[in-house]
Design a protein that fits this description.
- The chain contains 11 helices and 18 strands.
- The relative contact order is 0.12.
- Helix 10 links the parallel strand 17 and strand 18.
- The chain is elongated and about 80 Å long.
- Helix 1 crosses helix 5 and helix 6 crosses helix 7.
- The longest helix is centred in the middle third of the chain and has 17 residues.
- Helices cover 33% and strands 25% of the residues.
- With 324 residues, the chain is α/β, with parallel strands linked by helices.
């Protein structure tokens, strides 16, 4: 199994203004685009060809992929991305992937490389990667019967019947792929339902036992689906390689950063206490020189932020040193 498809045609409106002029998959997490995280993981797992369906600002994805090395990447355009959903994007791949084994995912999820490796190396079956035992109202959930076969996938499943959350990563056998695209063709060509999700097809095939899907348990491994700014912040934390122990000093801007509306932001006190415990030097930096260092020490301590005059750097400090 050496082929993967990535569905990347969406607008990503909930990440505006970041997505005003770029597709969501090119928004950066921990310093590199979401798409690059996916491509890196696929390449390391042994995938050699990736087909990406693009739409909104798609030419920017195409330009980015021209610079990416180590994978054969093909770009397919969904020119009607504003009026369709990801099932239609998958429909555009029918002539390339129908009857072929492949895996696919949406372009707005970052995966631990081990997740991709597990599904690539799994035995020849139809798989849905599932974070077993977890639940979220907004996520796609799966149900499983006593034989371990998936019986459905939907956002509507309640917690008491849900087996776990789908992480939007799927693998199809040649037979599964054939049935998958046959059903998509019926929905798009005959029923004219172009705004459906691919999970609608998977749910139908699973519930009607036309295709046997099994859950690939990835619980404990990292993954984040990025729909909004809270998700983006979570992904930055989960996939960050930042280690505070690697640093000798930390400089903290005050107004509008560490202190907002006259109050310290959530977590600021704990962060300063952590720096103190580790013996890492820290400095509060401000370009507001209307207060003295003594004033700032008093203000910071009143907010629970440990400070001495030696921790304060004012914009006037540089001026005084220059004049001296």
């Amino acid at each position: 199994m050496n082929t993967a498809a990535i569905l990347a045609a969406g607008i990503g409106s909930r990440l505006r203004p970041l997505t005003n002029n770029q597709p969501k998959c090119l928004v950066k997490v921990n310093g590199k685009p979401i798409l690059e995280h996916q491509l890196d993981a696929l390449k390391k797992a042994g995938i050699t060809k990736v087909i990406i369906v693009v739409g909104y600002e798609g030419y920017k994805i195409e330009q980015y992929c021209k610079r990416y090395e180590g994978l054969e990447i093909e770009i397919i355009y969904n020119h009607d991305y504003e009026n369709t959903n990801n099932m239609y994007s998958m429909y555009l791949l029918r002539n390339k992937l129908k009857g072929r084994e492949f895996l696919f995912c949406n372009a707005d999820v970052i995966y631990d490389e081990e997740i991709i490796r597990k599904i690539v190396e799994a035995k020849m079956e139809n798989w849905i990667a599932v974070d077993v035992g977890t639940y979220n109202e907004e996520s796609m959930k799966v149900t499983v019967n006593d034989d371990g076969r998936i019986t459905g996938i939907s956002k509507s499943f309640s917690k008491n019947v849900s087996y776990g959350r789908s992480v939007d990563l799927y693998r199809l056998t040649t037979e599964g792929s054939f049935a998958f695209f046959n059903e998509i063709e019926k929905i798009i060509e005959q029923q004219k339902r172009e705004r459906e999700w691919t999970e609608v097809v998977i749910d139908k095939l699973a519930s009607e036992r036309k295709v046997t899907f099994k859950p690939l348990d990835i619980h404990g491994l990292r993954w984040v689906e990025i729909d909004n700014f809270d998700d983006l912040a979570l992904a930055d934390r989960v996939f960050s390689d930042f280690n505070i122990d690697d640093y000798k000093a930390v400089f903290l801007d005050l107004d509008g950063t560490l202190i907002v509306g006259g109050q310290a932001i959530e977590g600021a006190k704990d962060f300063i206490e952590m720096l103190l415990k580790k013996g890492i030097n820290y400095y509060y930096v401000t370009n507001n020189s209307s207060r003295s260092k003594k004033d700032y020490v008093k203000k910071l301590n009143s907010l629970g932020l440990h400070a001495l005059e030696e921790n304060i750097i004012l914009s006037t400090d540089g001026l005084v040193q220059y004049l001296l």
